Amino acid sequence: MLEKLKFLSEKYQDLNKKISDPEIISNTKQWQKYVKEHAELEPIVAKYSEYEDANKQLDDAKEMLKDKLEDDFKEMVKQEVVELTEKIESLQEEIKLMLIPKDPNDEKNVILEIRAGAGGDEAGIFAGDLFRMYTRYAERNRWKVEMMNSNEQGVGGFKEVIVMIKGKGAYSRLKFESGVHRVQRIPATESGGRIHTSTATVAVLPEVDDVEIEIKPSEVRVDVYRSSGNGGQSVNTTDSAVRLTHIPTGIVVAMQDEKSQLKNKDKAFKVLKARLYEKYQSEQNAEIAQARKSQVGTGDRSAKIRTYNFPQGRISDHRINMTIYKLDAFLDGDIDEMIDALITTDQAEKLKSVER
Fold this sequence. Notes:
Number of helices: 9
Number of strands: 11
Helix content: 40-55%
Strand order of the largest sheet: 2-3-1-5-4-9-10-11
Low-confidence stretches: 231-235, 287-295
Shape: flat
CATH architecture of the largest domain: 2-Layer Sandwich
Strand content: 15-25%
CATH topology of the largest domain: Alpha-Beta Plaits
Number of domains: 2
Structural class: alpha+beta
Distance between the termini: 7 Å
């Protein structure tokens, strides 16, 4: 840990010089990059300086105890040693938390995709339940929810629904929701009272800036067609629906909720960029994830992460072995307790790597 701190302190001093260099100041983009890095390092370097000062004071106090001192003064120095030792331990813990690598996506908006999985109509109804749960959670946090695309099913619920959630820290709170969610309940149409199991898949993607992902027009096939389902007067009368196919990866995105072809195209490109970003990030992190798998899980969409059991009124998260018995409130968006536990577990795992 101390080696990391010394390295960061040296880097901070180097950035100090760079942001004062007239040649770098003239290059606005480069200068802003260094200023951002400098600001991120400042609190860690300040805490490290405080830690070093406390260690120096402790060494001085211990040296004083080697001398012949009057009893009253000796007791005072002993008390100072105790206090400084406690302070150093406390500062070490604070520094460890500050050294946990920051997720660059944490402050971004979210593209949330929910799809019905196994279980027929029940899976679609459950996808609708999850959609309402996340919408209510967004409302509680005063985040804005913008519908991007939906494919409703006849008996209620969705085959697929994609929304944009805009708000500070949205990705940091929702990123551990990716995966397969499972529901166990007795369907309204089940006369025998048997419990059915259905699933829905959730994907949480950070909104991607144009700078982060560049898509060449030659790599995308754009198809337009007539919308189907709910959508007002333009349904089946104009070619407003848009389908994008990213040729190198085979990723397909379709949008039809807007009456305007341009708006559908714009939304489709946002989703395509987010999916490509996720794909490239996953590939880059594959080796790291293999070497040190987070206890919270990889966020893999195929991983079963949580069960919602209606007869018992419980929600169980299988990654952290946590069960909560307040199903109605949970589905009404009261999910902070679970999210906080997931974040805490993730931080604990990352702390282990800091301490190595």
